Amino acid sequence: MTVPFRALASRLPLSLLVGMVLTTFLVVGALVAPLISPADPLSQDLYATFQPMSWGHPFGTDAFGRDVFSRIVYGTRYSLAEVCISVLVSCVAGTLAGMLAGLVGGYVEQAIMWVVDIVFAFPGIVLALLILSLLGPGFINMLLAISLFSIPVYARLAQNLTHTLQRTEYVEAARTLGAGTWRILYVHIMRNALGPILVQSTLTAGSVILTASSLSFLGLGVAPATPEWGAMMSDGRNYLGIDILPSLFPGLAITIAVLGFNLLGEGVRKVMEK
């Protein structure tokens, strides 16, 4: 017997439903960007600068006559790429380091967690600025910087989960039967820790977008003219007295994306606690 959609939706937290709608909206917009964009996001028309909202330019144009709506839609691709790459790298590296530290213990755990504590000592945006000052600005370097300061969060979480799970009866039984460290880590600990790590990943996604937009706003992220939300806000800040639209709509896009991922993470957490 199938459960009606309304009955299923009523059982899910409102935050999860709203988060799913917003994130799905972003993903679909990124996939169909060429179909819904009225113009090339890089195409300039100096005779059509700061045009008001119209059917041809739903969000107006910027200082170079570029269509703001098209640039926001294509900018969704960059934001989702930032989330996918940064969260994947930091999640895998931090989880493996934390689980290995919690399972092996001793000097190995102390060494790993000392490195984690050192990274934790720096505020995220400050550490990202430090890394970019050493490596230079650029999209790849920005993703590397964001991934590095996100690793300690997963490392601490994975370490705590490992300490909790390795005291369970099934892990002790597997160790008694001769299971090796890597088998215990993969079969018994990693699989049971996926839930909390998934929740943390969705919560981290919002901060990744916010940090990446901030770095691009400062000119340390994507190359100039790239349709990225933070860079678009930076381009429009010098013309706020003339037209607020080139900065307003990218800011709203960042707000919606961060809100969507945060609500999604909160909703997933509530479901996991049931």
Describe the fold and architecture.
- The chain has helices at residues 5-11, 14-31, 33-36, 68-104, 106-120, 124-135, 139-165, 169-176, 181-217, 229-236, 245-273.
- It is mostly helical.
- Helix 4 runs antiparallel to helix 5 and helix 8 crosses helix 9.
- The chain starts with a helix and ends with a helix.
* Approximate shape: elongated
Number of strands: 0
Distance between the termini: 23 Å
- Main sheet characteristics: none
> What level of helicity do the residues show?
over 70%
Report the mean per-residue pLDDT as an integer: 86
CA gyration radius, whole angstroms: 22 Å
Tell me the structural class: mainly alpha
Which range does the strand content fall in?
under 5%
Contiguous runs where pLDDT drops below 50 for at least 5 residues: none
Could you state the order of secondary-structure elements as H and E? Answer: HHHHHHHHHHH
Supply the number of helical segments. 11
The gist of it:
The chain contains eleven helices and no strands.
Give me the secondary-structure topology.
Blueprint: H1 5-11, H2 14-31, H3 33-36, H4 68-104, H5 106-120, H6 124-135, H7 139-165, H8 169-176, H9 181-217, H10 229-236, H11 245-273
